[in-house]
Write a structure and sequence with these properties.
heterodimer; B: alpha+beta; eight-stranded antiparallel sheet; 7 helices; 15 strands; about 35% helix
Chain lengths: ~280, ~325
């Protein structure tokens, strides 16, 4: 049943998403053209230069906004499918609550990943059209190759491990953010019948403030001390310790994500009343 | 809706007018006395002279020499001589004055888009300035970058110990640091950079720019020279004071906290709460909940308390390692 849920979720989101993606690509072409106009240095009238600059700024804003639009589509789908009149139908389907929740989580992660990829592609397109000489000149990437070489030289065989741990940590971080938003929407739907969206935003803002404060305190006080301790270690020992530190962070994040997941599940299972 | 739009428009107008009114006013043409006012400084009436300026009745002489720095308002650049031709070309003048009113910096904007910067010093301080840029200075200071405003007052004679030749490639292999040495005066906030204090792991050297014959440069960089004449500081009292300043330089958290273990204590408390107490509490809570639950909840609670115990184990391993 999860597959069917995913099918309808993706169909619902992507029927508008593809328009946004296409628009974003169009904006990237426009932005590339504007960069070309501004970069070539022809003696164009000031009006043309100014218009190109304004269009460039608006295009970049549009490309960035595309990711936000994608996320909003996911959250709207989550809210409408579960907490409006459509929710009556959803919760009468012969599916488990966990499958409904998993479907939404997979939808948000996949949409975010694809949107991120499209955005990167758009940015590349923009610069490929606007600055083709710089983008396609391999000499401009020498510093990157050198930096990577230095990194490999210092880390050796540990580098792939660090990369994998970094990716996993990144995914867990994104997952945590999505689960937090879903939990805020669910909680808002429990506590109020009207203005659920505004309540959800307010709850999310409050929770985010608290979490940001905690993270800032950690960054200000703990990170320098930890770095100082790590700096005293030998290089061979340091590589192992970094692996353990990242592993610890991964497990901690995973624990937080599962806690949020079970909270979400419990709210939907025991507390939700759509009447 | 209309009222809201009217309110927004009114706020916009008020803020625009306020911003315009409080901005520094550009000077008028050279034929009219210029007025410049800032929030915290003064109204200054300027009469433009060939060799100097009158500012609030005080005469400021044009000076032309090495780069000077002041703790006040502005950095100053090389000055040039004024001429009638310059006065003819000048469209308007922008002025800044140092906080102790010792130095005035003028930027002359010409009609063709170019500009010229000139610096004037209060006439009564010209002799003091000459003394600073010559080798007649007696008192100075060493400027350490952190914590802010950390300067060590010194006497010139204490800097000249044993003469040595510094080989910069050898110095570069050590853990060295550089701190600027200035000649100062108590008559105003002017100071002139005279050299560099180079600290290695066990010795302190003073590089006198003039005695080392380094030539002209905008910014001294030891790496530009293979060998430099320097003086090893042998005065024990000065060496001890420099050592104290350097220790403060490394131990201070940018001036935010005193070095009394406060940061260490807070970080230990936070790390303990986040990575020991919190996972422990989660472990206990979800272990109890898992015992009392059934079905799907039991599985999820079990996942949580297992994650918590793994976190605790990893934290203990890290604690033992570090």
């Amino acid at each position: 049943m999860l597959r069917k849920l995913l099918k309808y979720d993706f169909a619902s989101v992507f029927k508008l998403w593809w328009i946004a993606a296409l628009s974003s690509f169009g904006l990237s072409l426009l932005a590339g053209g504007c960069i070309n106009v501004l970069n070539v240095g022809r003696n164009l009238p000031t009006v043309v230069d100014t218009s190109a600059a304004i269009l460039l700024v608006l295009s970049v804003i549009g490309i960035v906004a595309f990711v936000l639009v994608s996320l909003v589509l996911v959250y709207v789908r989550f809210y409408k499918n579960l907490y409006t009149d459509e929710g009556y139908l959803t919760f009468t389907l012969p599916v488990k609550i966990s499958e409904i929740l998993n479907s939404k989580i997979i939808l948000s992660l996949v949409t975010l990943a694809v949107s991120g990829f499209i955005t990167c592609f758009d940015i590349f397109t923009m610069f490929a059209i606007g600055l083709p000489d710089q983008i396609f000149d391999i000499n401009n990437y020498e510093f990157l190759i050198e930096a990577f070489g230095e990194l490999v030289k210092h880390t050796g065989w540990y580098l792939p491990v660090y990369i994998i741990e970094g990716i996993v940590l990144g995914i867990l971080g994104v997952l945590f953010t999505q689960l937090l938003l879903f939990a805020c929407i669910t909680f808002a739907s429990l506590i109020t019948k009207k203005s659920r969206v505004i309540t959800a935003i307010a709850i999310y803002y409050g929770v985010n403030c608290v979490l940001s404060f905690v993270v800032q305190m950690l960054t200000m006080f703990c990170i320098p001390v930890v770095f100082e301790r790590l700096g005293l270690l030998e290089e061979s020992m340091l590589k192992w310790v970094l692996i353990i530190v990242l592993l610890c962070a991964i497990v901690f994040c995973f624990m937080c994500c599962v806690m949020l997941y079970v909270l979400q599940y419990w709210m939907m299972d025991k507390k939700l009343n759509l009447a | 809706m209309k009222k809201l739009l009217a309110l927004i428009l009114a706020l916009f107008c008020i803020s625009s007018v306020t911003a315009y009114a409080t901005a520094p006013v550009r000077t008028e043409t050279k034929d009219q006395p210029a007025k410049l006012s800032y929030d915290t400084v003064y109204e200054i009436d300027i009469e433009n002279e060939r060799e100097g300026l009158y500012v609030n009745g005080e005469y400021y002489t044009l000076f032309n020499a090495k780069k000077m720095e002041t703790n006040g308002y502005n950095e100053f650049q090389y000055a040039i001589s004024m001429s009638d031709e310059l006065k003819q070309k000048t469209q308007d003048v922008e002025l800044c004055i140092s906080s102790d009113l010792a130095v005035v910096n003028a930027t002359y904007n010409f009609g063709d888009g170019t500009s010229l910067n000139a610096t004037y010093i209060k006439h009564s301080l010209v002799r003091e300035y000459d003394r600073l840029v010559s080798n007649e200075w007696q008192y100075g200071e060493i400027e350490f970058e952190y914590p802010y405003d950390n300067q060590l007052p010194i006497m010139q004679e204490k800097l000249y110990g044993k003469q040595v030749n510094l080989f910069t490639n050898e110095i570069g292999d050590t853990n060295y640091h550089e701190f600027r040495v200035y000649a100062t005066t108590d008559k105003c906030e002017l100071k002139a950079e005279k050299g560099m204090l180079v600290t290695t792991e066990d010795k302190y050297y003073f590089i006198d720019y003039e005695k080392a014959n380094l030539g002209d440069f905008d910014y001294f960089n030891m790496a530009d020279y293979s060998e430099i004449l320097a003086f090893e500081i042998t005065d024990e009292n000065l060496c001890n004071k420099i050592e104290e300043c350097i220790e403060a330089y490394y131990d201070d958290d940018f001036g935010f906290f005193d070095d009394d273990g406060f940061t260490n204590a807070v970080s230990k408390v936070m790390l303990t709460i986040m990575f020991i107490i919190f996972p422990l509490a989660v472990f206990v809570l979800f272990l109890i909940l898992a015992k009392r639950s059934k079905g799907y909840y039991k599985k999820v609670f079990r996942t949580i308390y297992i994650s918590a115990i793994i976190t605790l184990v990893l934290v203990v391993v890290l604690f033992l390692t570090l």
